[in-house]
Design brief:
Number of strands: 16
Strand content: 5-15%
Organism: Umbra pygmaea
Keywords: Leucine-rich repeat, Repeat
Structural class: alpha/beta
Protein name: SPRY-associated domain-containing protein
Pfam family, one: PRY
Strand order of the largest sheet: 2-3-4-5-6-7-8-9-10-11-12-13
InterPro entries: B30.2/SPRY_sf, Leu-rich_rpt, LRR_dom_sf, NLR, PRY
Shape: globular
Distance between the termini: 11 Å
Radius of gyration: 25 Å
Helix content: 25-40%
Order of helices and strands: EHEHEHEHEHEHEHEHEHEHEHEHEHEEE
Number of helices: 13
């Protein structure tokens, strides 16, 4: 799909060389190197990528990662004096050979990488298996792992087993956004949480197809005394109010140490909130932050939540009920609880933002016309006034230093600031 971006100032080759000299020479280590900040050609990428050898955090996102680029990254990870601790490879096509090179680096005794993000397509179960092997074989320092958009459920099982079940694993944060999660994968996650060697504290499954049955599996893991999880994010996971019964049972368990739970953008409704509130009022519930934005909660649901604060034992400090339908009575009763000095609730979000979510026509006052810049268009994109069509044969656009060569992208000519609105349609 073509991507529309605002035009950024092209990084001149001399500036590229100057930056490379700055970050690759001397004793000064760069805190962060972000390749996305520079609008550069393929040649420019080759000039700048060696900078990963002299920074603490490297963001190499949105580019085609070939073996040469990954070999450069690997050389940084395998260097005995490498400062690299965080590597972000999101929004890339990471092939199996590239993933195998990365896994090799993780096995190096010199690798000190603590956070790794890989999202996108291009690899198969073979590449994921090599990553799982790296996590299990030695004792990597990896504490944060992001494998979003991989859509390889069965292959992910090995990574989860290695990351949560291996006694050598130090993994504390796992992010699996936009994966077509199955109940079986949730069973594997639950089993991992039950492992006495699991160090996982933060699990993010947002935008994945978890479903009620998946939540029931996860809830069983939350009740295990070995589970150390304190943050669970299930934003937009195709849940209904039915799953709240299992969650309520989990959060009021003596063994559960869950502090933060995000259930936003799910079809929980008042029924789900009623079930959840029963768990919130239990004195064993340690939950401090709850997200229920976009859950179709009405005044009735607000009254159930209010009842959870009556025993004065609730630990809840933050409650997000934005973009629901609390009505005047619901908003009033919860606001009164927030003002009660004997209540721990300190942050209550009931923003409705009618302009954006109820009367979309009001947004059109921010409408702006965008002119597509043919000098930036990828050769597989055909421009016709304000329409863009992707074709298989390359269009003979003239050579231009700002033309996108790897990704099907076209930019607009205008520089936009403030609040802007436009619409697009697919055909």
């Amino acid at each position: 799909m073509p991507i529309f971006q605002l035009k950024k100032k092209r990084t001149h080759p001399r500036l590229q060389k100057s930056l490379l000299d700055k970050v690759s020479g001397g004793d000064k280590v760069l805190d962060e190197f972000d390749l996305q900040k520079f609008k550069i050609s393929d040649k420019g990428i080759f000039r700048l990528i060696p900078a990963v050898r002299n920074c603490k955090k490297a963001i190499v996102a949105g580019v085609w990662i070939d073996n040469w680029i990954m070999e450069t990254v690997v050389s940084a990870l395998e260097s005995p004096d490498s400062p690299l601790r965080e590597l972000d490879l999101r929004n890339n096509s990471v092939t199996d050979p590239v993933l195998e090179l990365l896994s090799r680096a993780l096995l190096s005794p010199h690798c000190k990488l603590e956070a790794l993000s890989i999202s996108g397509e291009g690899h198969t179960s073979v590449g994921i298996a090599s990553l799982a092997s790296a996590l299990k074989s030695l004792s990597p320092q990896l504490r944060e792992l992001d494998l979003s958009l991989n859509i390889l459920n069965d292959s992910l099982n090995g990574v989860i087993d290695a990351g949560l079940g291996s006694p050598k694993s130090k993994l504390e944060k796992l992010r699996l956004h936009k994966n077509t999660t199955t109940k079986h994968l949730c069973d594997v996650l639950s089993s991992g949480l039950n492992s006495n060697s699991s160090q996982l504290r933060d699990l993010d499954l947002s935008y994945s197809v978890v479903g009620d049955s998946g939540v029931e599996s996860l809830s069983a893991g939350l009740k295990n005394p070995h589970c150390k999880l304190d943050t669970l994010r299930l934003y937009q996971c195709e849940l209904t109010g039915k799953c709240c019964e299992a969650l309520a049972s989990a959060i009021c368990s003596k063994e559960s140490g869950l502090k933060e739970l995000d259930l936003s953008n799910n079809d929980l409704r008042d029924y789900g909130v009623k079930l959840l509130s029963a768990g919130l009022m239990n004195p064993h519930c340690s939950l401090e932050k709850l997200g229920l934005s976009f859950c179709r909660v009405t005044e009735e649901g607000c009254m159930y939540l209010a009842s959870a604060f009556k025993p004065k034992s609730s630990h809840l400090k933050e409650l997000d009920l934005s973009y629901n339908h609390p009505g005047n009575a619901g908003a009033k009763v919860l606001s009164a609880i927030k003002e009660d000095s004997s209540c721990k609730l300190k942050k209550l979000n009931m923003e409705h933002n009618e302009e954006c979510w109820v009367k979309l026509e009001l947004l059109r006052k921010y409408a702006c016309n965008i002119t597509l810049d043919p000098n930036t268009a990828h050769r597989e994109l055909l421009l016709d006034n304000r329409s863009v069509k992707r074709v298989t044969e390359e269009h003979p656009y003239p050579e231009h230093p700002e033309r996108f060569l790897n990704n099907p992208v076209v930019m607009c000519e205008e520089g936009l600031t403030g609040r802007c609105y436009w619409e697009k349609s697919n055909s």
